[in-house]
Amino acid sequence: MELRHLRYFVAVAEELSFTRAAERLHIGQPPLSQQIQALEHEVGARLFERSKRWVRLTEAGKLFLADARRVLALSEQAKETARRAQRGEAGELRVGFTFSTPFTSLFATVVRRYRQQYPGVLLTFHEMATLHQLEKLEARELDLGFVRTVSVAIPETITLTTLRHDPLRLVLPADWPIAAMETITVKDLEGLPFVIFPKDAGTGIHPQLFRMCRAAGFTPQIAMEAGEASTIIGLVAAGCGISVLPSSFEGIHMEGVVYRPLADPQATTALMLARRSEGSSPLAEAFIALARTAAEE
Known about the structure:
There is one protein chain. By secondary structure, the chain is α/β, with parallel strands linked by helices. It has helices at 3-15, 18-25, 29-43, 59-86, 105-117, 130-138, 205-215, 229-237, 282-296; strands spanning 48-50, 55-57, 91-97, 121-127, 144-148, 158-173, 193-196, 221-225, 243-246, 257-261, 268-276. A hairpin with a 4-residue loop joins strand 1 and strand 2 (55-57).
């Protein structure tokens, strides 16, 4: 059974005339009659009662008409859904983001605008570290990822779009003497205990911190490790050590903790959108375009 058979049937059922239905369908009446007979044979039931003067639906025909209309409506809906997906207006977009991303105004702006402009797209979000996002993108388990600066080579299959640069902030107990210093550099952190993400967490901040410290002539003294930024800041509040995080985390206010800028020029991190270099969907391209516009603003 083909969709055209259903269209022929619906036309005859609505016109109750093979002549008028044939004119409406722009086909000859004999071929239309043959197609209806073939449909009845395939269905295994008479759909019409016929005479030389009239055409009527049988009880089976009346029930079949309701289902035929639903099937045709669904077929049109399926075509429209495919067209909307091609235009980037429907489907699912899987977006990864780092722990610091939700604290940036850019993230909120892009997501809000995308939802407003493309309400038919299902956005699903996945919080994970930068390196894990890159792995998921390569495995096609993510479509886009908000990532931070990394020290490893980016696979050729991944393309990065830089959206903004954020300064790094020193996170430290408010009552420590270093908090009163007017200018703080990485060199001033030598000998102080650090609370940081574990090496295997996949964040970009871990290797960057070690690079900056080594460039300043020392290796950071790791006092504790934690997998969540809020936990790190809580441990700093408890006096367990200091930390270095993207400035977006300043949005986490905790008693006993202060944030201070680092004077070193290299104390910055980029927020980027990562995607696969080939096969990017219209949904992803629309999201990237909105993100670029928001970043330029």
